[in-house]
Amino acid sequence: xxxxxxxxxxxxxxxxxxxxxxxxxxxxxxxxxxxxxxxxxxxxxxxxxxxxxxxxxxxxxxxxxxxxxxxxxxxxxxxxxxxxxxxxxxxxxxxxxxxxxxxxxxxxxxxxxxxxxxxxxxxxxxxxxxxxxxxxxxxxxxxxxxxxxxxxxxxxxxxxxxxx
Length: 164
What we know:
Layout: E1 4-9, H1 16-29, E2 34-38, H2 53-59, E3 64-67, E4 72-75, H3 82-89, E5 94-98, E6 107-111, H4 117-121, E7 125-128, E8 143-145, H5 149-159, E9 161-162
Parallel strand pairs: 1-5, 1-6, 2-5, 6-7, 7-8
Antiparallel strand pairs: 1-9, 3-4
């Protein structure tokens, strides 16, 4: 197991999810085990149907784990550190994190069209489909081609956080 973790950040609709999906599909096709964490900063995601037992259990404020023949779903009433997330997933080759800009992970800023300068400042590299090299403001940032997923995977292999 490689156990490499990396995070992706950027403006809404910048292409983070699409890039993560493309990376995951390529890595899975090469028989790597991929785990993905999605940040839900506004707590909008819905994971269960109203009135079902697991929904009732979750509404008690308890931590709940739902186990079925094909998946395990965990409802925990507090956020998790990157170490807790790594422990939770156990064995993986790649952990791809969308968002969670406070996690101490190497970070790829995704930019398609509009440029999110605030996100660049907390990132290690920018993956973009734009040419910013003529703009003095961005000359100190390393750029990756957003449409070259193999190049991005190579960057992850070299720069992602390695876990034992």
